[in-house]
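This part of the workshop introduces the protein records we will be handling. A record pairs a protein's sequence with a compact description of its fold. Comparing a sequence with its tokens is the quickest way to learn the format. The record below serves as our worked example for the rest of this section:
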Amino acid sequence: MQRNAQEYEVQTIFDEQQDHYQLLYVGWRGNKRDFGCILHLDIIGFLYVILLLFL
């Protein structure tokens, strides 16, 4: 499904104490709320774990 940019926005979540970071899309698909993870980043010591989710 292709998303209309006017109906969706990008939001960030920062948990600096646990070093977890996310980039999300949120919006509406018809009359239902829709959201999902675009990028998830965990910092573990000097090791960076990046999960990219392609929609």
